[in-house]
Write a structure and sequence with these properties.
Site (Transition state stabilizer): 301
Bound molecules: 3-phosphoglyceric acid
Number of domains: 1
Active site: 117, 220
Strand content: 15-25%
CATH architecture: 3-Layer(aba) Sandwich
Binding site for substrate: 116-123, 166, 220-223, 231, 247-248
Number of helices: 14
Shape: globular
Radius of gyration: 21 Å
CATH topology: Rossmann fold
InterPro entries: His_Pase_superF_clade-1, His_PPase_superfam, PG/BPGM_mutase_AS, Phosphogly_mut1
Number of strands: 18
Distance between the termini: 50 Å
Strand order of the largest sheet: 12-13-11-16-10-17-18
Keywords: Glycolysis, Isomerase
Protein backbone atom coordinates (compact mmCIF):
# COMPACT_ATOMS: atom_id res chain seq x y z
CA UNK A 1 0.00 0.00 0.00
CA UNK A 2 1.40 3.38 -0.95
CA UNK A 3 0.62 6.89 0.14
CA UNK A 4 -1.04 9.22 -2.33
CA UNK A 5 -1.87 12.88 -2.08
CA UNK A 6 -4.14 15.24 -3.94
CA UNK A 7 -2.63 18.69 -4.05
CA UNK A 8 -5.18 21.44 -4.22
CA UNK A 9 -4.27 24.68 -5.86
CA UNK A 10 -4.28 26.88 -2.83
CA UNK A 11 -0.58 27.19 -2.58
CA UNK A 12 -0.30 25.89 0.92
CA UNK A 13 -2.86 23.15 1.25
CA UNK A 14 -2.98 19.55 0.26
CA UNK A 15 -5.30 16.66 0.93
CA UNK A 16 -3.62 13.46 1.81
CA UNK A 17 -4.87 10.00 1.19
CA UNK A 18 -3.64 6.48 1.30
CA UNK A 19 -4.12 4.28 -1.66
CA UNK A 20 -2.93 1.44 -3.74
CA UNK A 21 -1.86 3.68 -6.55
CA UNK A 22 -1.01 7.29 -6.98
CA UNK A 23 -4.53 8.28 -8.07
CA UNK A 24 -6.48 6.57 -5.33
CA UNK A 25 -7.38 8.48 -2.20
CA UNK A 26 -9.50 7.00 0.51
CA UNK A 27 -10.08 7.23 4.16
CA UNK A 28 -8.81 10.76 4.12
CA UNK A 29 -10.27 14.04 5.08
CA UNK A 30 -11.66 13.54 8.52
CA UNK A 31 -12.24 16.74 10.39
CA UNK A 32 -9.86 19.60 10.28
CA UNK A 33 -8.49 19.76 6.75
CA UNK A 34 -8.35 23.38 5.72
CA UNK A 35 -8.74 24.88 2.29
CA UNK A 36 -8.33 28.45 1.24
CA UNK A 37 -11.22 28.40 -1.20
CA UNK A 38 -14.86 27.84 -0.41
CA UNK A 39 -15.51 25.17 -2.98
CA UNK A 40 -13.70 22.41 -4.68
CA UNK A 41 -14.80 20.44 -7.67
CA UNK A 42 -13.34 17.01 -7.87
CA UNK A 43 -13.98 14.57 -10.63
CA UNK A 44 -14.25 11.35 -8.79
CA UNK A 45 -15.53 7.82 -8.71
CA UNK A 46 -16.36 6.94 -5.13
CA UNK A 47 -16.48 3.45 -3.77
CA UNK A 48 -18.23 2.48 -0.59
CA UNK A 49 -17.27 -0.66 1.22
CA UNK A 50 -14.93 -1.33 -1.63
CA UNK A 51 -17.83 -1.74 -4.03
CA UNK A 52 -18.42 0.85 -6.75
CA UNK A 53 -21.76 2.48 -5.97
CA UNK A 54 -21.98 4.76 -8.95
CA UNK A 55 -19.97 6.77 -11.34
CA UNK A 56 -19.84 10.43 -10.47
CA UNK A 57 -18.05 12.15 -13.26
CA UNK A 58 -18.43 15.50 -11.51
CA UNK A 59 -19.10 15.88 -7.84
CA UNK A 60 -18.91 19.16 -6.04
CA UNK A 61 -17.56 19.10 -2.56
CA UNK A 62 -18.74 22.24 -0.95
CA UNK A 63 -16.41 23.21 1.79
CA UNK A 64 -17.69 24.82 4.88
CA UNK A 65 -17.41 28.55 5.03
CA UNK A 66 -14.51 28.52 7.40
CA UNK A 67 -12.69 26.30 4.96
CA UNK A 68 -13.02 23.13 6.97
CA UNK A 69 -14.19 19.99 5.30
CA UNK A 70 -15.38 17.72 8.04
CA UNK A 71 -15.37 14.38 6.42
CA UNK A 72 -14.64 12.62 3.17
CA UNK A 73 -15.01 8.97 3.66
CA UNK A 74 -15.12 7.77 0.10
CA UNK A 75 -12.50 5.85 -1.59
CA UNK A 76 -12.16 7.58 -4.92
CA UNK A 77 -9.98 8.13 -7.89
CA UNK A 78 -9.22 11.73 -8.60
CA UNK A 79 -8.53 12.89 -12.06
CA UNK A 80 -8.85 16.60 -11.71
CA UNK A 81 -9.50 19.29 -9.16
CA UNK A 82 -10.66 22.81 -9.83
CA UNK A 83 -12.50 25.56 -8.01
CA UNK A 84 -16.06 26.39 -8.90
CA UNK A 85 -18.89 28.43 -7.52
CA UNK A 86 -22.55 27.58 -7.53
CA UNK A 87 -25.21 29.99 -6.37
CA UNK A 88 -27.72 27.17 -6.04
CA UNK A 89 -25.53 25.00 -3.91
CA UNK A 90 -24.70 28.04 -1.87
CA UNK A 91 -28.34 28.90 -1.32
CA UNK A 92 -29.16 25.37 -0.22
CA UNK A 93 -26.10 24.72 1.82
CA UNK A 94 -25.17 28.05 3.25
CA UNK A 95 -27.36 27.25 6.19
CA UNK A 96 -25.70 23.88 6.54
CA UNK A 97 -22.47 25.32 7.82
CA UNK A 98 -24.53 26.16 10.86
CA UNK A 99 -24.17 22.55 11.87
CA UNK A 100 -20.57 23.06 12.84
CA UNK A 101 -21.56 26.00 14.98
CA UNK A 102 -24.46 24.10 16.34
CA UNK A 103 -24.31 22.49 19.69
CA UNK A 104 -22.10 19.51 19.32
CA UNK A 105 -19.83 19.77 16.35
CA UNK A 106 -19.97 16.30 14.96
CA UNK A 107 -16.71 15.19 13.54
CA UNK A 108 -16.82 12.00 11.59
CA UNK A 109 -20.33 10.70 11.76
CA UNK A 110 -23.46 11.74 9.94
CA UNK A 111 -27.07 10.73 10.32
CA UNK A 112 -29.87 9.83 7.96
CA UNK A 113 -33.42 9.79 9.30
CA UNK A 114 -36.18 8.25 7.20
CA UNK A 115 -39.81 8.87 8.14
CA UNK A 116 -42.94 7.62 6.50
CA UNK A 117 -45.66 10.28 6.69
CA UNK A 118 -48.33 10.13 9.39
CA UNK A 119 -51.76 8.70 8.68
CA UNK A 120 -53.52 10.42 5.77
CA UNK A 121 -57.26 10.80 5.26
CA UNK A 122 -57.12 8.04 2.67
CA UNK A 123 -55.03 5.75 4.90
CA UNK A 124 -57.85 6.15 7.40
CA UNK A 125 -60.41 5.16 4.77
CA UNK A 126 -58.16 2.32 3.56
CA UNK A 127 -58.03 3.73 0.02
CA UNK A 128 -55.14 3.33 -2.43
CA UNK A 129 -53.53 6.77 -2.42
CA UNK A 130 -50.45 6.50 -4.63
CA UNK A 131 -49.76 9.92 -6.09
CA UNK A 132 -53.08 11.46 -5.04
CA UNK A 133 -52.22 14.40 -2.80
CA UNK A 134 -54.14 13.78 0.43
CA UNK A 135 -53.49 15.57 3.76
CA UNK A 136 -52.99 14.07 7.22
CA UNK A 137 -55.74 13.14 9.65
CA UNK A 138 -55.63 14.37 13.25
CA UNK A 139 -54.06 11.03 14.13
CA UNK A 140 -51.47 11.59 11.38
CA UNK A 141 -50.71 15.04 12.80
CA UNK A 142 -50.17 13.47 16.22
CA UNK A 143 -47.97 10.77 14.72
CA UNK A 144 -45.83 13.40 13.03
CA UNK A 145 -45.48 15.33 16.29
CA UNK A 146 -44.64 12.10 18.10
CA UNK A 147 -42.02 11.31 15.44
CA UNK A 148 -40.59 14.78 16.01
CA UNK A 149 -40.28 14.09 19.74
CA UNK A 150 -38.33 10.92 19.03
CA UNK A 151 -35.80 12.70 16.85
CA UNK A 152 -35.65 15.99 18.71
CA UNK A 153 -32.10 15.34 19.89
CA UNK A 154 -30.72 14.26 16.54
CA UNK A 155 -28.86 16.74 14.36
CA UNK A 156 -30.61 17.74 11.11
CA UNK A 157 -28.99 19.95 8.46
CA UNK A 158 -31.29 19.42 5.50
CA UNK A 159 -34.69 17.84 4.90
CA UNK A 160 -35.93 16.12 1.76
CA UNK A 161 -39.61 15.47 1.25
CA UNK A 162 -41.72 14.24 -1.61
CA UNK A 163 -43.88 16.69 -3.54
CA UNK A 164 -46.95 15.43 -1.67
CA UNK A 165 -48.51 17.34 1.20
CA UNK A 166 -48.71 14.40 3.62
CA UNK A 167 -44.92 14.02 3.61
CA UNK A 168 -44.37 17.76 3.84
CA UNK A 169 -46.83 18.14 6.73
CA UNK A 170 -45.04 15.30 8.52
CA UNK A 171 -41.64 16.92 8.10
CA UNK A 172 -42.85 20.34 9.23
CA UNK A 173 -44.79 19.04 12.21
CA UNK A 174 -41.90 16.84 13.31
CA UNK A 175 -39.57 19.82 13.24
CA UNK A 176 -41.79 21.79 15.62
CA UNK A 177 -40.51 19.41 18.32
CA UNK A 178 -36.82 19.72 17.57
CA UNK A 179 -34.60 21.19 20.23
CA UNK A 180 -32.41 23.14 17.81
CA UNK A 181 -35.39 25.48 17.26
CA UNK A 182 -34.42 26.03 13.65
CA UNK A 183 -37.05 26.95 11.10
CA UNK A 184 -37.63 24.48 8.25
CA UNK A 185 -37.88 26.49 5.02
CA UNK A 186 -39.04 25.08 1.70
CA UNK A 187 -36.55 25.70 -1.10
CA UNK A 188 -38.25 27.16 -4.19
CA UNK A 189 -35.99 26.60 -7.11
CA UNK A 190 -38.61 25.98 -9.79
CA UNK A 191 -37.63 29.15 -11.67
CA UNK A 192 -35.28 32.10 -11.49
CA UNK A 193 -38.17 34.18 -10.20
CA UNK A 194 -39.11 31.80 -7.41
CA UNK A 195 -35.48 31.62 -6.37
CA UNK A 196 -35.19 35.39 -6.23
CA UNK A 197 -38.50 35.91 -4.50
CA UNK A 198 -37.78 33.38 -1.79
CA UNK A 199 -34.27 34.54 -1.01
CA UNK A 200 -33.27 35.03 2.62
CA UNK A 201 -31.07 38.08 2.91
CA UNK A 202 -29.94 37.80 6.49
CA UNK A 203 -27.02 35.40 6.94
CA UNK A 204 -27.87 35.12 10.58
CA UNK A 205 -31.44 34.10 9.88
CA UNK A 206 -30.21 31.63 7.25
CA UNK A 207 -28.15 29.93 9.92
CA UNK A 208 -31.30 29.47 11.94
CA UNK A 209 -33.06 27.70 9.06
CA UNK A 210 -33.12 24.17 7.71
CA UNK A 211 -33.62 23.88 3.94
CA UNK A 212 -36.47 21.63 2.89
CA UNK A 213 -36.04 20.24 -0.62
CA UNK A 214 -39.15 18.86 -2.34
CA UNK A 215 -38.66 16.12 -4.90
CA UNK A 216 -41.38 14.35 -6.90
CA UNK A 217 -38.99 11.42 -7.25
CA UNK A 218 -39.65 10.62 -3.57
CA UNK A 219 -43.42 10.46 -4.15
CA UNK A 220 -45.44 7.37 -3.32
CA UNK A 221 -45.49 4.73 -6.06
CA UNK A 222 -48.11 5.47 -8.70
CA UNK A 223 -50.94 3.09 -7.94
CA UNK A 224 -52.52 3.67 -11.36
CA UNK A 225 -56.11 2.53 -11.73
CA UNK A 226 -56.25 1.41 -8.11
CA UNK A 227 -55.99 4.98 -6.82
CA UNK A 228 -59.12 5.93 -4.92
CA UNK A 229 -60.36 2.34 -4.50
CA UNK A 230 -60.77 0.67 -1.14
CA UNK A 231 -58.06 -1.93 -0.48
CA UNK A 232 -60.39 -4.41 1.19
CA UNK A 233 -62.99 -4.15 -1.60
CA UNK A 234 -60.27 -4.50 -4.23
CA UNK A 235 -59.07 -7.69 -2.52
CA UNK A 236 -62.62 -9.05 -2.53
CA UNK A 237 -62.96 -8.22 -6.22
CA UNK A 238 -59.61 -9.43 -7.56
CA UNK A 239 -58.59 -11.86 -4.82
CA UNK A 240 -56.30 -11.35 -1.83
CA UNK A 241 -53.28 -12.86 -3.56
CA UNK A 242 -53.52 -10.67 -6.61
CA UNK A 243 -53.83 -7.53 -4.49
CA UNK A 244 -50.94 -8.61 -2.27
CA UNK A 245 -48.88 -9.13 -5.41
CA UNK A 246 -49.77 -5.62 -6.65
CA UNK A 247 -48.96 -4.12 -3.27
CA UNK A 248 -45.85 -5.96 -2.22
CA UNK A 249 -44.08 -7.70 -5.08
CA UNK A 250 -40.98 -6.09 -6.49
CA UNK A 251 -41.68 -6.26 -10.18
CA UNK A 252 -45.45 -6.60 -10.68
CA UNK A 253 -47.23 -3.38 -11.67
CA UNK A 254 -50.72 -2.56 -10.46
CA UNK A 255 -52.95 -1.77 -13.50
CA UNK A 256 -51.35 1.22 -15.25
CA UNK A 257 -49.29 1.94 -12.16
CA UNK A 258 -45.69 1.55 -11.04
CA UNK A 259 -44.06 -1.57 -9.68
CA UNK A 260 -41.73 -1.18 -6.70
CA UNK A 261 -38.92 -1.69 -9.18
CA UNK A 262 -40.07 1.34 -11.21
CA UNK A 263 -40.52 3.40 -8.04
CA UNK A 264 -37.06 2.36 -7.02
CA UNK A 265 -35.58 3.52 -10.31
CA UNK A 266 -36.63 7.10 -9.67
CA UNK A 267 -36.49 7.21 -5.86
CA UNK A 268 -33.14 5.45 -5.43
CA UNK A 269 -31.66 7.30 -8.39
CA UNK A 270 -32.64 10.58 -6.75
CA UNK A 271 -31.39 9.35 -3.41
CA UNK A 272 -28.03 8.42 -4.87
CA UNK A 273 -27.45 11.29 -7.23
CA UNK A 274 -29.25 13.87 -9.28
CA UNK A 275 -28.27 16.88 -11.29
CA UNK A 276 -29.50 20.25 -10.23
CA UNK A 277 -31.09 21.88 -13.27
CA UNK A 278 -29.87 25.37 -12.55
CA UNK A 279 -26.30 24.85 -11.46
CA UNK A 280 -25.72 21.57 -13.30
CA UNK A 281 -24.15 20.25 -10.12
CA UNK A 282 -24.40 16.60 -9.25
CA UNK A 283 -25.82 16.13 -5.81
CA UNK A 284 -27.88 13.55 -3.91
CA UNK A 285 -29.02 12.55 -0.47
CA UNK A 286 -26.50 9.73 -0.29
CA UNK A 287 -23.69 12.08 -1.27
CA UNK A 288 -24.92 14.65 1.18
CA UNK A 289 -24.73 12.16 4.04
CA UNK A 290 -21.65 10.22 3.00
CA UNK A 291 -19.46 12.72 1.29
CA UNK A 292 -20.42 16.01 2.87
CA UNK A 293 -21.10 14.53 6.30
CA UNK A 294 -24.50 16.23 6.53
CA UNK A 295 -27.33 15.16 8.76
CA UNK A 296 -30.32 14.50 6.57
CA UNK A 297 -33.97 13.74 7.19
CA UNK A 298 -36.17 12.28 4.47
CA UNK A 299 -39.96 12.38 4.87
CA UNK A 300 -41.59 10.24 2.23
CA UNK A 301 -43.87 7.27 1.64
CA UNK A 302 -44.22 3.57 2.27
CA UNK A 303 -43.02 2.49 -1.14
CA UNK A 304 -40.46 5.16 -2.01
CA UNK A 305 -38.90 4.44 1.39
CA UNK A 306 -39.13 0.67 0.92
CA UNK A 307 -37.12 1.16 -2.26
CA UNK A 308 -34.52 3.28 -0.47
CA UNK A 309 -34.28 0.87 2.47
CA UNK A 310 -33.93 -2.03 0.07
CA UNK A 311 -30.95 -0.19 -1.41
CA UNK A 312 -29.42 0.78 1.94
CA UNK A 313 -29.95 -2.58 3.64
CA UNK A 314 -29.08 -4.54 0.54
CA UNK A 315 -32.35 -6.45 0.57
CA UNK A 316 -33.24 -8.86 -2.21
CA UNK A 317 -36.46 -8.54 -4.19
CA UNK A 318 -37.73 -11.44 -2.11
CA UNK A 319 -36.80 -9.91 1.24
CA UNK A 320 -38.40 -6.56 0.44
CA UNK A 321 -41.82 -8.23 0.19
CA UNK A 322 -41.93 -8.48 3.99
CA UNK A 323 -40.76 -4.95 4.65
CA UNK A 324 -43.64 -2.97 6.15
CA UNK A 325 -43.33 0.62 7.31
CA UNK A 326 -45.64 2.15 9.86
CA UNK A 327 -46.88 5.71 9.64
CA UNK A 328 -44.76 8.29 11.43
CA UNK A 329 -42.04 5.99 12.72
CA UNK A 330 -38.54 7.40 12.23
CA UNK A 331 -35.69 5.12 11.25
CA UNK A 332 -32.13 6.12 11.87
CA UNK A 333 -29.04 5.31 9.84
CA UNK A 334 -25.54 6.35 10.80
CA UNK A 335 -22.82 6.98 8.29
CA UNK A 336 -19.37 6.25 9.59
CA UNK A 337 -16.23 5.52 7.66
CA UNK A 338 -18.10 5.37 4.38
CA UNK A 339 -20.69 2.87 5.57
CA UNK A 340 -24.32 3.73 6.10
CA UNK A 341 -25.77 1.34 8.63
CA UNK A 342 -29.17 1.07 10.20
CA UNK A 343 -29.12 2.08 13.81
CA UNK A 344 -32.74 2.46 14.81
CA UNK A 345 -35.57 0.02 15.02
CA UNK A 346 -38.63 0.79 12.91
CA UNK A 347 -40.68 -0.52 15.79
CA UNK A 348 -39.23 1.82 18.38
CA UNK A 349 -42.06 3.61 20.13
CA UNK A 350 -39.81 5.79 22.26
CA UNK A 351 -36.83 7.97 21.54
CA UNK A 352 -34.56 5.27 22.93
CA UNK A 353 -36.30 2.70 20.76
CA UNK A 354 -35.71 4.73 17.66
CA UNK A 355 -31.99 4.69 18.04
CA UNK A 356 -29.14 3.77 20.24
CA UNK A 357 -26.86 6.66 20.99
CA UNK A 358 -23.46 6.77 19.44
CA UNK A 359 -20.75 8.79 21.08
CA UNK A 360 -21.24 11.73 18.70
CA UNK A 361 -25.01 11.74 19.09
CA UNK A 362 -24.69 11.65 22.85
CA UNK A 363 -22.36 14.62 22.59
CA UNK A 364 -24.84 16.52 20.40
CA UNK A 365 -27.57 15.85 22.90
CA UNK A 366 -25.38 16.92 25.79
CA UNK A 367 -24.67 20.22 24.03
CA UNK A 368 -28.39 20.76 23.44
CA UNK A 369 -28.94 20.18 27.14
CA UNK A 370 -26.26 22.73 27.99
CA UNK A 371 -27.72 25.34 25.63
CA UNK A 372 -31.21 24.94 27.04
CA UNK A 373 -30.11 25.18 30.67
O1 LIG B 1 -50.49 4.61 -1.53
C1 LIG B 1 -51.04 4.04 -0.56
O2 LIG B 1 -52.19 3.65 -0.58
C2 LIG B 1 -50.25 3.81 0.70
O3 LIG B 1 -49.60 4.95 1.05
C3 LIG B 1 -49.29 2.68 0.58
O4 LIG B 1 -50.05 1.63 0.28
P1 LIG B 1 -49.57 0.11 0.29
O5 LIG B 1 -49.38 -0.29 1.71
O6 LIG B 1 -50.72 -0.57 -0.37
O7 LIG B 1 -48.34 0.02 -0.54
Amino acid sequence: MSTGSLHVATGTTSVRGFGNDSRACYGFGNSGIRFLSTELRVHLVPKINWEPVASYPQVHLRLLRNGVIRSCRFKFHTTEASFVHSAYVDSIFSSLHGSTEDPGKISDESTLILIRHGESLWNEKNLFSGCVDVPLTNKGIEEAIEAGKRIRNLPIDIIYTSALIRAQMTAMLALTQHRCYKVPIIVHDESEESRTWSQIHSENTKKQSIPVVKAWQLNERRYGELQGFNKQETAERYGKEQVHEWRRSYSTCPPNGESLEMTSRRAVAYFREHTNSESRTVTGIFLCVSLLGKHVMVAAHANSLRAIIMYLDNLTSQEVIDLELSNGVPMLYICKEGKIIRRGSPLGSTEAGVYAYTWDLALYRQKLDEVSL
